[in-house]
Sequence to fold (121 residues):
Amino acid sequence: MRRLLTVLAASIVLALGLAACAPAAESIDVTADTVLIDVRTPAEFATGHLDGAINIDVQSADFEDRIAQLDPTGDFVVYCRSGNRSGQAITRMESLGFTNLVNGGSVASASASTGIAVVTP
Fold:
């Protein structure tokens, strides 16, 4: 039992030490011209999104058509629930010629990195 407690205590100390070394969210510079794109579903978007964001669901059939209406030379911050779908969206946007793309990760991460509040409709 004592050995188990020692191993458990060491694991906790190690985990806390590694967590303390984790980098803080990097700041994302946003200008008045930066377009915020939430690539979650409309239902997810309705639960809360960055103020001023547009919703273009990466899983929708018209994703490429809607993205193609945007200026590929613009600046974009793309985010979703966890950062996975935003990464997929960025890959697809790059194939359409977009170059100034930032993966904001999750809604919370994007809010923290940009300083833009999460709002609900």
User: Anything to note?
Assistant: The longest strand covers residues 100-106. Residues 25-119 form a domain with the Oxidized Rhodanese; domain 1 fold (CATH 3.40.250.10). The mean pLDDT is 85.
